[in-house]
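Contributing new records

If you add data, match the layout below exactly. Sequence lines come first and carry their own label; structure lines follow with theirs. Keep one chain per record. Anything else will be rejected by the validation script.
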Amino acid sequence: MQVGAGKAKIELPETLFPIEGFGGVHDDLYVRALLLDAGLPFLIVCFDATSLRPYAIKAFRAQAAEAADIPQENVWLCVSHTFSAPHLRSEEALAREGGEVARKNEFLFDSMTAAMVSAITQAKASLEETQPVMGNAYCAVNVNRDMLTARGWWLGADDLGESDKTVPFVKFLRPDGQTKAVLYSCDVQSSVMDHSKGADGHSQVTGDLVGAASRFIEEQYGDGFVALFLLGAAGDQAPLFKAKHNIPNRDGSIDETDIGDEGFVLVNALGKKLGVQVVQAMERVKQPFQPGEAALRQTELCCPGQKIAPNLRDIHPTKSYDFQPEGERTVTVSYFTLGHVALVGLGPELSSTTAIDIKKDSPYPLTIVATMVNGGDKYMPEHTAYDRITYEAMNSKFACGSAELMARHIIETLKSIQKEGTT
């Protein structure tokens, strides 16, 4: 199989600031691209961004396909899900606010486009024969963020909560035995610095935990190496430590603490912790597998829907909540299989336990469940979240049972793909 990899910085000049409460850049944001060809071309692009708007997905996907000279359906656009990056604004917000907001949004859009095209161009130019090697690292940088308080379940850290600590990866070896790139995934939100403010009252742009991890991995392997991250099932997962965090008191009240710029010590510590474990696992695993013919598939699943809270500020810890059904929601699920490896990509943010169930019953030895692929779709929590009335359950447009339905659908599809590949 052939693999090409590329990486380019998203340019954010000082004249762009302030924007969305950000006063400047602490560390650079990047776009990374991985182009694979094992019988059919497949492109993964990861932006250091929180999320991507539908209009951006449409435009970026078309431009990515053109830059790589492949069909649009063979392109996955993903995000590292750093919470400390300026958002592309919604079309409604741009129409409402216009002026300076629209100007800055256009600049950000163009900068992200330029970085994406540059990364893909590098990937295409660097295509070469490689051998894939798969493995799992283990790293406890994530924790279940649903914690029980006297007033109900809320956002925090629960060390007893379900949390998958495995970090699946696929590395690609050149003919000379040197490692060219790695694709890795973890169930964690890159949100150590989420809404944390420095002494000047502003937040700083950062690639956060995942940015620090990818930088560390890339530094270990030298110039030209690319470590591309796929966001796992992190809907109910948070970094082990956060700069701005909630502390529940005995009486049910919650104290909010922000350590400000000191939080970057946590970013560096957790990022390097994850990076070190990935590198060590990569060095332990040497045996390539035969990729065979790659396969791409796309399915749709209708899930029961529910009304979502109109304003996030209306969501708070509670012991009673009226979940109201509302029609059905259609979810697109994408699959890429390569030998013993299956990548599953979808928009909704699944809970870690849902991905654990999918991996356990998948017919593929290594299955990576990636979320926020080709757009986000808010949370799709597992059923106990609705009983507990968690933040994710109240902030979901999917009704209870959707996650379990999705897991069964994905497992059945993976079995079907494998069966077709062996007949």
